[in-house]
Amino acid sequence: MMESPLPTPRRWIRSAATSVVAGLLVTAVGCGGPESCLVSGKVLVDDRPAEGVYVVFHTAGDSTGLPDSGSARSGDDGSFTVVVSTPGESTVTAFWPTVTVKDQDTIEGGDRFGGAYRDPRRPVATVTIHEGENAVPPIKLTSPPRGKSRTSSRR
After folding, report:
1. Cβ atoms 56, 92 nearer than 8 A
2. Distant-in-sequence, close-in-space partners of 127: CB < 8 Å, separation ≥ 6
3. Are 84 and 57 in contact (CB under 8 A)?
4. pLDDT at 45 over 90
């Protein structure tokens, strides 16, 4: 009897992160090519590597809403790699969706942080991106206490 190759959440997340990075490498512009502004780092939640956290880089200095400059989802060891489209100062936001696998569908749910780290006006970090490879310090986040939202208290 053959087993159906259902994707596990971990395998799906790894595959999705790889697809996002590959897509960004193909479509990146502004830094002189797809490998010019490569940013890598690690996401820690409660000082532990966190899988499946989206990190979003926003071009700083734009008062009209800080457009996305690049985004990626962290792997099982908390690491991420993203191509940022514009060198210079960027702010970083994050969100961590719940993941449910039902039948063969993977469904992303609400943000485990309750939106506390999604506002570009209150970033989790501000970094300067240079052309070439960039390693940013770990992005350290704190999970909210069970049953409480973090929208009013950030850290």
Report:
1. yes
2. 39, 57, 89, 90, 92, 134, 136, 137
3. yes
4. yes
Q: Closest Cα to residue 128, out of 57, 28, 53?
A: 57
- pTM of the predicted model as reported, rounded to 2 decimal places: 0.69
Which residue has tokens 């790889």?
18
DSSP reduced 3-state for 97: strand
DSSP 78: S
Helix (H, G, I), strand (E, B) or coil at 23: helix
- Across the chain, the runs of DSSP E, i.e. the strands, are 37-45, 48-49, 54-59, 68-73, 79-83, 88-95, 97-102, 105-111, 125-129, 132-135, 139-141
pLDDT (tens digit, 9 = 90+) per residue, 46-92?
999 999 999 999 986 654 455 678 999 999 999 999 999 888 999 99
CA gap 29, 36 in Å, rounded: 9
Phi, psi of 30 (to 5 degrees): 110, -25
Count of H helices and E strands in the chain? Answer: 1, 11
Say which residue the tokens 């991106």 belong to.
129
